[in-house]
Amino acid sequence: MEDLTISLVQADLYWEEPNANLAMLEERIWNLEKTDLIVLPEMFTTGFSMNAEKLAEPVGGKTFKWMRQMAKQKNAAVTGSYIVKEDKNYFNRLYFVYPDGSSNEYDKKHLFTLADEHETYVPGDKKIIIDYKGWKICPLICYDLRFPVWSRSQKTGNDLYQFDLLLYVANWPDTRISAWDTLLAARAIENHSYSVGVNRIGTDDFPKDYPGHSSIYSFKGDQLEFSTTDTVITATLSASDLGEYRSSFPFQADSDDFKL
């Protein structure tokens, strides 16, 4: 396990304009220096839209191919969620695309009922753990952040830690941004892992205002990176610092066993 360089793309998304968003994001990705992982917001092609019938893409469609192209050209993994139609169902689906073109996927479990997301999309029922460059990464989506059991690291055999990095992609509005800041730190502390949140900025057609606050928190809950502007945050996560802290303070050994 070596250090991991991660780039958080905090952007003002064009409302329900996939082509414009892909072009804008591609330019930002092209301008990145060397990085290992590029993280895009929730529904990065459209904004947080319930207009799935119009905007959904088939499995393996245009945006997935675009992610594969970006991953290959930058020799970095690319992740984020967008609207996918599979069979007759719509999903808020996150893809984690590796530089070699292979991928993992996660469907948002906790759908935001206050915006009737549950009336449009089908919830996921599986948490995934991604192995990448020696890191175990748990990717989740927006509203998932409010539910600590779903985000909780579970002990397996002699392995105390299910993951090293919790990763949240979001469209989180300014009216509840204090919860975003607090919960990202809490998830880091309780899991002894890095916690990363990538939010958008700007305004959508609900209308909701999004203030950014994309952040990186250390395994101690310290905020390492933070921004409220239209920007890309790039930082390196230290594997040795994480390992040393877990060895010095093995609180996870005393954690409760549970089943979801």
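the 2nd protein, sequnce then structure:
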Amino acid sequence: MEILIKEINVNDYLTLSKLPSADYVINPYVGCTHACTYCYATFMKRFTGHDEPWGTFLDVKRCAKPININKLKGKTVFLSSVTDCYNPEEEKYQITRSILKQLVKADIELNIATKSKLILRDLDLLKQFKNLVVSISVNTLNNNFRSQMDRASSIKERLETLKILHENGIKTVLFMSPIFPYLTDFKAIVEQTKNYVDEYWFENLNLRADYKKTILGFIKNNYSLIYPKYVDIYQKNDLTYWDNLANEIEHYCKANNIQYKNYFHHEKIVKK
């Protein structure tokens, strides 16, 4: 698939965050070529002038202005909220690496979220951060299902990345997101990874905008037996499944001394 790539100039890499767990966000790119079918960030097309399908364009951000690390003292910075800072093009453009070289001198808590093994390229820099959390998204152990949802690293590569980061003293988070009802087996994922994951974050599958129709169509065509249950959740707004799963996760994690955070009903958390 042909990817439309262009370089753009921006005034600052830092953006004030609207997320509950970060003061600033940095998105080194506009768009994301991992092309996740369920990606909530597709709304960004409205603000960027892109009408191409999500996953087929990428704007590479160039910024001549150095990051003001003085105003970041004691703050939390998140890489990244509406892109993956380790998309495949990062290997060439190295925007994220250049940002890390500036942030490594800052007194911050840095959170990095990715689906890519490419983050290991920057292990030399990551090990210099005193307060760093890296989260890798994994919502299945079935790589065939994964490949139908995104073009990021394989499940095996993601788990190996978590293991290597953990072995190098970096706090690791397995971000189980998005949880697909009746498909994501959270216990199986935890049992396979608990020796090298410090904390688990759980987030439910939210469906809205264009990708709601896409995902529901995918479930109907590939998992017809559970499709009526998706209709209950996403068309009839029945939240019983999520309430029951939240309770199950809580009981399981507490019984097994698993550190976790539950981000179900994320929109309510942000609003609060």
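The CA atoms of residues 10 and 63 lie 5 Å apart. The chain is about 35% helix and 20% strand.
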